[in-house]
Amino acid sequence: MRWDWQIALVVTAALLGSVGCSKEEKGTPMASATGTAAAAAGGDDPKAYFKMKCVVCHGENGGGDGPGGAALDPKPRNFTDAAWQGGVKDDEIKKAILEGGAAIGKSAAMPGNPDLRAKPALLDALVKHVRSLKK
Q: Do 92 and 104 meet the contact criterion of CB atoms below 8 Å apart?
């Protein structure tokens, strides 16, 4: 059984890397040239960046129901959850976006976006976009 879980994790990582949800640092399991292209396509528009990098797992409306997240355990964060929105600080959201889920004690399957260090206005706008998804 342990072997099946490892295969599923590798397949999921490959899927995520191939659809643009990638880590930009060399030498990481999720490194991918598609991440750079996705970031460039997103420009400085937070909704476009979210669509390019986050929707695959978090879903169009942020409900944690994206197609890439279906095989993940734990499931991607549901940004529409009012209780979560009320209990998380903007700095924690920023850190997760920049450094990935493992940086805040969450899923290591969520890659970071270190390219956003050079775009603090876009990072702030992404946090506002995540906040806007609250129901």
A: yes
31: DSSP letter: B
Residues with Cβ within 8 Å of residue 60, at least 6 apart in sequence: 51, 66
For residue 30, what pLDDT is reported? 40
Residues of the chain with pLDDT under 50: 1-11, 13-39
Residues 6+ apart with CB under 8 A from 65: 59, 78
Q: Which residues lie below 8 Å from residue 81, measured CB to CB, with a gap of 6+?
A: 134, 135
**Would you state the structure tokens that stand for residue 121, as one six-digit string?**
């206005």
Cα 30 to Cα 20: distance, rounded to the nearest angstrom: 10
Contact 63, 79 (CB under 8 A): yes
CB 85 within 8 A of CB 131: yes
And the tokens for 12?
Answer: 């999921």
User: Strand pairing partners for 31?
Assistant: 23
CA-to-CA dists, residue 67 to 6, 27, 64, 76, angstroms: 20, 26, 9, 11
* Cβ-based neighbours of 87, under 8 Å, separated by 6 or more: none
